[in-house]
Prior knowledge:
Structural Genomics Hypothetical 15.5 Kd Protein In mrcA-pckA Intergenic Region, Chain A; alpha/beta; six-stranded mixed beta sheet; Rossmann fold
Amino acid sequence: MLGDPLHFEAIMTEYKSDLLRLLSERGHIHQLTDAQGLDALANREIVVGYNGYDATAPSLHVGNLASVMLLRRLQQAGHKPIALMGGGTTKIGDPSGKDTSRQMLTEELIASNIAGIRKVFERLLTFDDSASGAVMVNNDDWLSKLGYIEMLRTVGPHFTVNRMLTFDSVKLRLDREQPLTFLEFNYMILQAYDFRELALRHGCRLQFGGSDQWGNIVNGIELTRRMNGIELFGATTPLLTTADGAKMGKSVNGAVWLNEEMLPNYDFWQFWRNTDDRDVGRFLRIFTDVPLDEITRLEALEGSEINAAKEVLANEVTALIRGPEAAEAAKATAQATFAGGGLGQDLPTHEVAEGTIGVIDALLALGFAASRGEAKRLIAGGGARLDGEPLRDEAAVITVAQERRLSSGKKKHGILKPA
């Protein structure tokens, strides 16, 4: 039976391998199942490591980016990353951090989502036939072929319900008296099986994940050791929150998507430009390839000078995820909008077909409010501005005979233009 989680080791002060040194210096390590063993392995051979992503949307979001950067660091250190797409597990649903059951998706939609997610990996990883070339794998290739009785007989004996009930993902739902389906209850078993399958098929020895995945990673390590006698390793990255305690990756209007079709380049750039002063150095280490000595210089800037470091962060992350041209265009838009008082060409835009539009409808169309009530509160609080002038009347109608700039607060701007 799978027992208690492996005791994780404190981070060593000195590592011998380039891999763990790089991960440690960049602030990626939270827990390691066997720091000394993994360090020795990475120092003597190429390590194959993976992280898994369920295809619940056509794009990953900023909250996923720290784990994707782990795969990038793995390859930068000369090792081989596997991006595991959860074509099979997406059909089940990970209960971790969820209060309700996940919506069931069709196989066609899951395949479409995987195609969208791949775009980010193609920018951050090198896919080729070299020893360290990245590969993308879909767990539906083996999970969909598993027979139910076979699964129960071969894997079931290694899990106890007693142990499974102690997992935070399960306890949270039960404590809140939220339904947890038998379907979702099986998720942790399938994730453990994934690690074993990747070890057998691809020689994978390392699984990455967020700190909330620790128990699932340990399950995979123990299951593979018991069934096949293979030694595996796990590493988690810290749960990222901003300096004010907010969960990383969320904006006022929802998730900060990595794909351009889900979020305009300017909005993506501006998200990073608005980083809290206290987070700049940490985010530069985790989300960019800026040299560490330069990061030390940038994070030491004070007062208004820290804005230069925030621009570096915004430019570097946007260039990595969206491409250098997108970063340059977003920066130019910001300069035109804030410094010159003009209309940057990369701002979110809404075409007005009838020549006029209500201010509430305009705020909704540009994504500055998620509901009419939220738009009314923005107007009442003086946060809505048209061409720099406050809009106080929620019933106001905007005439759009030429391009107009609509703003939400001091940092969010959009363009209304005639159709």
